[in-house]
Amino acid sequence: MIQLKGVSKVYRSGQGEVRALDDMSLIVKTGEFVAVRGPSGCGKSTLLSLVGGLALPSQGTIHACGFEVSSMSPGKRAQFRADNIGFVFQMFHLLPYLSVMDNVLLAANSTHDGIRDEVQSLLEKFGLDQRRLHRPSQLSAGERQRVAMARALLNRPKLLLADEPTGNLDPKNAAAVLDLINEFHQDGATVLLVTHDDKAAARAGRTIALECGRLVEVDAAAQPT
Fold first, then answer.
1. Is residue 74 part of a domain?
2. Structure confidence by residue, pLDDT tens digits, 85-117
3. Residue-wise over 171-182: b if at least 16 C-beta within 10 A, else e?
4. What contacts 204, CB < 8 A, 6 or more positions away?
5. How far is CA 198 from the centre of its chain?
6. Cα(first)–Cα(last) distance of the chain, in Å?
7. Residues spanned by the domain of 166
8. Residue 8 neighbours by CB distance under 10 Å
9. pLDDT (0 to 100) of residue 222
């Protein structure tokens, strides 16, 4: 499902360079739920960005969902994300002037006649059916994150990339979001979850740890041969 070989990511500026990832090699198998841990600035979010095609590596190759993401053009990476990836972030990234329904519809990669019914079904599943016409400012933090989850899962992605999805939530809402992620995983999908939360990491089948852009703890089975 995911394979990184010798991947580095370097950000350069007038003040020098920052090596966000440093010669990383990693395998995540189809259907795995993997938590990524480590201190702030260690490269966790960069890892998700590279796997999801939001950025390209400075060196090395990245395969995900059967595609070599690291060699794709910007347009092909955008289509790859739409067809294969669901993203969930700590900050929700909902458009404030759109309703819950329309925020979820933004993710639709098809405009077929039944798409609004699919969104409605997701909102009912996530306990948001009575909120579908509300705007984000009228929702609690937990509700906003559930809207973000519905948006991420609308296209039935093969891979969910979640970056601190419980970071702004109280324990009850955090548990509800983790239940939704776990249910998605139980349906056969792959999850890569960045988290500082012990309870969130405990939901994963495997945990890897990063430090200064390098893997410092990983199962031997996860290393490429």
1. no
2. 999 988 888 999 999 999 999 888 766 678 888
3. eebbebbbebbe
4. 33, 34, 35, 191, 193
5. 18
6. 15
7. 32-53+84-222
8. 17
9. 44
Measure the CA–CA gap between 203 and 32, rounded to whole angstroms: 11
> 126: exposed, middle or buried (C-beta count within 10 Å: 0-12, 13-18, 19+)?
buried
Ramachandran angles phi, psi of 40, nearest 5°: -60, 140
DSSP conformation letters of the chain: -EEEEEEEEEEEETTEEEEEEEEEEEEE-TT-EEEEE--TTSSHHHHHHHHTTSS--SEEEEEETTEEGGG--HHHHHHHHHHHEEEEETT----TTS-HHHHHHTT-S---TTHHHHHHHHHHHTT-GGGTT--GGGS-HHHHHHHHHHHHHTT--SEEEEESTTTTS-HHHHHHHHHHHHHHHHTT-EEEEE-S-HHHHHTSSEEEEEETTEEEE--GGGS--
User: Total structural domains in the chain?
Assistant: 1
Per-residue pLDDT, 218 = 66
Angle at 126 between CA 103 and CA 148, to 5 degrees: 35
For the chain, what's the residue count? 225
Q: Give Dmax over CA atoms of the chain in angstroms.
A: 52
d(CA 158, CA 53): 14
Would you say residue 15 lies in a domain? no
pTM of the model: 0.89
User: Is 172 inside any structural domain?
Assistant: yes
Q: Among candidates 21, 58, 22, 23, which has minimal Cα distance to 43?
A: 21
Is the pLDDT score of 82 beyond 80? yes
